[in-house]
Amino acid sequence: MRWHTRGVLLQDVGIVASSVLFGLLHPLGLAYVLWATAAGAGFGLLYLGTGSLVAPALAHGTYNLIALGYLRRRSGRERALSFETWDDGSREMAEARLRR
Fold it and tell me: What is the pTM of this model?
């Protein structure tokens, strides 16, 4: 959807409609669509305020990086908690990881 990411849609339909479309392009559940809509509005305001796609692109990339780190860390905790048996000392290592 390059037409959306390059600010064309924002200029054609405005910030509200383009933000809603941005949210709908992230269908991970209603709460996330609403969150993405709000984020899309923020990215749109960054674009309108700077006149450049650099700021919203950096903001989007930063958000993605933080979200990926959170999901990877959360995924590791769930995996560590899912083991039923611990016979090789890995339980202590996993518990130490969880305390970080």
Answer: 0.69
